[in-house]
Amino acid sequence: MNYSRLAPFYQCIERCTMGSALQRARTGQLDRLAAMTQPQRVLIVGEGDGSFLLQFARLFPTAHITVVEPSAGMVARAQARLRRAGLASERIAFRQEPLLEAELPEAAYDLIVTLFFLDNFEDALMRASVAKLNACACDSAYWLLSDFCLPSRGWRRLRARFWLRVLYGFFGLSAGLSARVLPDFERAVQATEFCEVHRHGLCGSLLFSALYRMPARVMTV
Q1: What are its E.C. numbers (predicted)?
Q2: What is the pLDDT of residue 145?
């Protein structure tokens, strides 16, 4: 899986297929998050071309951010976007490597961000990714998750199945994506200690944006 070849055209592809819906899904929880906490150590996985990172860095100017993104093309575009906005700084570190190969500290981050990332994997790799991210989260951490979803019934389900088939087919050919169906990452996250704080659907329930929080562990003696 490599999105570098698509990096120069990704924003155009996104706008032509989904308009502004994907970006609204990425950023839809930011105001709620800001009202609840000011994260200081943030892990963003699969950021892509920096469209979310730019807004996040502006809204949370004291956060130290680690971005794990395997695509060299996407990393280059995200870094260029930050430079143009005057936001390139040492507080934003890029790791150009796959998540499951990255050496990341455990219990270190107070915010995990996965935006249209977990849909890239077949079930076993998705679950391994969720487990690794869960291990990286500290007590009372938040998890911001936005992605596609498959409604349970009706015309929305038929519409979602059509779009998912088109998108998986396209990215399979253009980026070497091996996944062909949407894994149940919401259930995988819910199987951790994270509890859902808020969730809302977009684009006729084809997309969703959710905010989770890990409760503080009670220390016993």
Answers
A1: 2.1.-.-
A2: 98
- Residue 34 Cα to chain centre, angstroms: 17
At residue 41, does pLDDT exceed 90?
yes
218 in any annotated domain: no
Does residue 219 lie in a domain region? no
Per the listing, tokens 């592809």 go with 13
- Digit-coded pLDDT (tens) for 184-206: 999 999 999 999 999 999 998 99
Burial-class residue 215 by CB neighbours within 10 Å (0-12, 13-18, 19+). exposed
Mean pLDDT of 168-172: 91
Q: Count the domains in the chain.
A: 1
The domain that holds 18 is classified in CATH as 3.40.50.150
Instruction: Flag whether 78 is in a domain.
Output: yes
Q: For residue 185, which of 109, 122, 141 has the smallest C-alpha distance? A: 122
| Long-range contacts at 57-60 (CB < 8 A, ≥ 24 apart) | 57/82, 57/87, 57/92, 58/85, 58/87, 59/30, 59/34, 60/34
